[in-house]
C-alpha cells in the first residue's frame, strides 16, 4: 500500500522532469522550413558528465550535441577540467516577398573537480557524435622526502 509520502515523492519527480523539459524550447517554422533551438534561461547549460578513473588516467565524457570541435574550449589544471562551448546559429530565408531572420545561441559550461592529480599538458580530447571525451594521464604521486633534522 502506497503512503501519501510515496505519492508526494512521485509528484516531485514528475515536476522535476517537466522543468527539465521546459529548460529548452524548440521553435518550428514550417512555412520557412527552419528549426531554431533556443534555451531558457539564457545562461549556459551544464552538460551531462561521466568520469572514470583507471590505473593510469582519468577519462571524462560530456554530452554536448550539435557542436563542432571548433566551438569547444578546454582548460585543464592538475585537479580540474573546465569546458566551455558556444554554438551560434543564424538563418535568413526569403520566400515570396517575405524575409525571416533567426539567431540562436547554444552554450555549455562545466567545471569538474578531478578525483586525483593529472598531467594537463599530456591531455588528449576527442569529439564525436555529440560526445566529448577527454583523457587525462595521472600525475605521479609524491612519495615524500625524508628530511634530516639539524
Total number of strands: 9
> What number of structural domains do the residues give?
1
Instruction: Indicate the mean pLDDT.
Output: 80
**Euclidean distance between termini CA atoms:** 73 Å
Can you summarize the main beta sheet?
A: 4 strands, antiparallel
* Order of strands, widest sheet: 3-4-9-8
Q: Can you tell me the CATH class? A: Mainly Beta
The coarse silhouette is flat
Cα radius of gyration in angstroms? 23 Å
Which features would summarize this protein structure in a list?
single chain, about 150 residues, mainly beta, Immunoglobulin-like, 4-stranded antiparallel beta sheet, 3-stranded antiparallel beta sheet, 1 helix, 9 strands, about 15% helix
Amino acid at each position: 500500500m502506497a503512503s501519501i509520502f510515496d505519492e508526494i515523492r512521485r509528484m516531485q519527480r514528475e515536476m522535476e522532469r517537466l522543468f527539465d523539459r521546459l529548460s529548452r524550447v524548440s521553435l518550428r517554422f514550417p512555412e520557412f522550413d527552419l528549426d531554431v533551438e533556443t534555451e531558457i534561461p539564457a545562461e549556459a547549460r551544464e552538460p551531462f558528465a561521466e568520469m572514470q578513473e583507471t590505473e593510469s588516467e582519468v577519462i571524462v565524457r560530456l554530452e554536448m550535441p550539435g557542436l563542432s570541435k571548433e566551438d569547444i574550449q578546454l582548460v585543464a589544471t592538475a585537479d580540474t577540467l573546465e569546458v566551455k562551448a558556444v554554438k551560434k546559429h543564424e538563418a535568413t530565408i526569403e520566400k515570396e516577398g517575405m524575409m525571416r531572420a533567426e539567431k540562436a545561441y547554444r552554450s555549455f559550461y562545466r567545471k569538474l573537480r578531478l578525483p586525483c592529480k593529472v598531467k594537463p599538458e599530456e591531455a588528449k580530447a576527442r569529439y564525436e557524435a555529440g560526445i566529448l571525451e577527454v583523457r587525462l594521464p595521472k600525475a605521479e604521486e609524491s612519495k615524500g622526502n625524508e628530511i634530516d633534522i639539524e
